[in-house]
Amino acid sequence: MAASGGYIVALGSERIVARQTSPVGSIGVIAQIPNVARLLDTIGVKFEITRSSPLKAAPSGLEPTSPEAAAEIARVIADNYDWFKRLVGERRKLAEAEVAKVADGRVHSGRQAVTLKLIDEVGGEAEAIAWLEREKGIGKSLPVRDWRRRSESSSYGLWSAGEALARAAGLEAIAALLARAAEIPVGLRLDAPLALWQPAVEK
Questions:
Q1: Which among 47, 68, 138, 183 could bridge 132 via Cys, Cβ 3.0 to 4.6 Å?
Q2: Would you name the residues annotated as active-site residues?
Q3: What is the pTM of this model?
């Protein structure tokens, strides 16, 4: 997987190797915020929001997005998009026209990505190791360590989703607690959905 944020990470390397069918590219920026204002109206729930300024925590998803808030989000997205395209051009040594050709948000297969110069080679771990041995003099005996999550049943995704929803609702204190909880190893979580105190974790 080398798409969007995954592709930004890949750009930090000297050489990018991807599988034939790997999704590559998705060069673009998006912001998606579910707006539940009409649903809240239907069930009779109203959020009272006090802000220091009209654009604080906007859009929030709890009220219709104002034209001013939409314009500001669009401005930030455009700036990040320019940065992303510039990064692709610099790291992959692509001309402006070449960047424009691949920076429309589409994904490409690994085979297509080679032609578009988004990656250097189709392959996997063996091809990447062979390049390191050949070009960087890395010894064949150097061990390769695969990173895995502590638990395949990790609930980090749920904690992160909860944090995002809390931030969207402007509940920063709850979002901070959820973010802290997501950092705690699963085995040390005392209860659900959140314990306000946890034992210190030895590193």
A1: 138
A2: 4, 56
A3: 0.67
